[in-house]
Amino acid sequence: MPQRETKKALIVVRTYPTPARKGAEVSCTAAITNKGEWLRLFPVPWRYLAEAEKFRRYQWVEVTVEKATDHRPESYKLTQGGIKIVSEPLSTDDGWKLRREFIEPLRAHCLCCLVKKRDADGHPTLGVFKPKTIEKLIITPDASDWSLAQQAILTQGHLFALPPKQQLEKIPYKFQYKFSCDERECKGHTLSCTDWEMAEAYRQWRDKYGDQWEEKFRQRFETEMIEKLDTHFFVGTVHQHPASWIIVGLFYPPQVAQARLEFSQ
User: Fold this and answer.
1) Residue closest to 140 by CA, chosen among 202, 187, 186
2) What local confidence, expressed as pLDDT, does residue 160 receive?
């Protein structure tokens, strides 16, 4: 039987939920421990959690976990009732200084480097890096509703918790970033982005702006991410496809903060 342990960690990533047999609907959650190590929590049925356990990004939490059977070394299984929130979200003051202090030490040079190291050593399967250039955001239509099997899972619910008031909405689009690394041999990458924030922005702006949602969406997640913000990508490998990477989260302090940071070094 796996040994339980308690870890203190800073939540940095939460993906949009997907239907899953274990947990009804689950999010992949990534964090950085107080020892400066990556931690993947999966599955996390976030919408089914008790209100006192519903963490936000950049909050410190104490989690009771067991090593997952997942082959990825950073992956741990969250135990029932195993979340204690111990701080408010870290401030974005001074160019996200407090958040940068925990992100910067783990920043990789590029995705190409992460892929090479994982292919050679089996890890890391989580990482963060700053792309050399972001060419564009690709938005493509997707299925507008869950499959029959997925609907059955959502209807079945979670064994130990009451269901949310609203059933999980299927996002009818896929979001991908096309970018290149600061690496001479880089041939460019196109990765899906499953960040919860993007999905929630789509839902809110569709309701607010109707057919004009894409214009507002692109302004935020394409124009500003390329021209205004110091955009980094949190990435991770896919459990069922170990060689495949996706963008699981966005880190986007203002560019002026980066300039000040480099000047001070």
Assistant:
1) 202
2) 57
